[in-house]
């Protein structure tokens, strides 16, 4: 994915952009967080590079137009799950942090009362 991310987005890549977009969109649901971020960079760069022309009289010729709605659905799904993600991440601190916090409190106690 890093290789795809580093490819120059030019006219040579344009014919392959729908296939790349299709595969990267599939990876959004199955990859880990780090790889999903790379996928998102690829998707955004492809959309920026190969978007339809700004001229309203010209017909839309973006090869990626059909991927806009699924991408926006993915973004909505992320925001819908945001509350659960924040709750599971921050409600219960890891045991390592609890032990570290207790260790620091013991040091503060010893320095304060000795």
Structural class, please? mainly alpha
Number of strands: 0
User: In this structure, how is the largest beta sheet organized?
Assistant: none
Q: Output the radius of gyration.
A: 23 Å
| Helical content class | 55-70%
Number of helices: 5
β-sheet strand percentage: under 5%
Number of domains: 1
Which outline best applies? elongated
| Mean of all residue-level pLDDT scores | 80
Q: State the distance separating the first and last CA atoms.
A: 57 Å
N to C succession of SSEs? HHHHH
Detail the poorly predicted runs: none
Explain how this protein is built.
The protein is mainly α and 114 residues long. It has one domain (2-113). The chain is 68% helix and 0% strand. It contains five helices and no strands. The chain has helices spanning 2-6, 17-30, 33-49, 68-90, 95-113. It is elongated and about 80 Å long. The N and C termini lie far apart (57 Å). The mean pLDDT is 80.
Give the secondary structure arrangement, pairings included.
Layout (H helix, E strand, L loop, with lengths): L1 H5 L10 H14 L2 H17 L18 H23 L4 H19 L1
Helix pairs in contact: 2-3
Can you tag this structure with a few keywords?
114 residues; 5 helices
